[in-house]
Amino acid sequence: MPLSATPDTADSISLPAFLSHVEEKVDLTSPDGLFQASAQMGSLANNRCFLAEYFNDAIKRFWHDGMLAAYTPQSVLLGQGRGFFMRANIWTPLKLESQFRSQEEKVFSYRNTHDHNFMFMTVGYFGQGYETDIYHYDPSKVIGYVGEPIDLEFMGRERLSMGRVMVYKEKEDVHTQFPPDELSISLNVMVTPNTDLMSDQYFFDPHQKRITDMPEIALVHKRASIIAMLGFIANDNSLQILHDLIAKAPCRRVREAALVAISNMANFNSSDKDYLYRIGASDKDESVRRTARKHIQGLKG
Known about the structure:
2 domains; 10 helices; 11 strands
């Protein structure tokens, strides 16, 4: 369950002061450490001017040089420090007709049950805020393949109202966000450990309690998708590269993607592919072994 509070403070601090506080005084290695900054997060949310001034300056820069900072269609990067960055997320009510709503929901991650491969703290800054269903699971008990059953426990529903602070733990905290009835803005402190290059992120079906997908926006899956693509355009030098990745890469998704790349190599013989698949079949990770066994079966026809 995420850590949560509504700090009882009338104090207000600036964005630079908040960023300095997080960088200099906050332990970013644990949820409890990050939660120690909840009072300061509440004080930043009390500052009703800083975000307007940030947008004023950003739009003036855009007017002069054509550059407008953005993170995604709904997010704006506000600043960063050692081991973290901060963004504002804009949550809008659904506007499109029913036949287009699924695409609109996808852009804003509405009704998309997911975990995170990083820890973060969020606070409601503007508007009524979105509602979110919260779940919990034990990532140590998960192999990590699409369709895998998950012991996903429903923990309740929360609203990220103005001044409400929540800290989501990496992996184990899962949520589904719903569109607000009015435009709302949240502020997020995103912790960026090196593990986000190694750790998975999942989409879930909360009713069937299964993994449904792995979002390619996560760094670990972006990197894996590039490796898998290599198989389509591979040359004679690619085989050794993929061999080394299957045998030595520390990230299991990279090893798995190298196996997929091998399967996409149309101009290489089956015996070479079988040799590499069998390296994967003896991997220490069950997800990699599953992928290798599937491709071995594919060779057998």
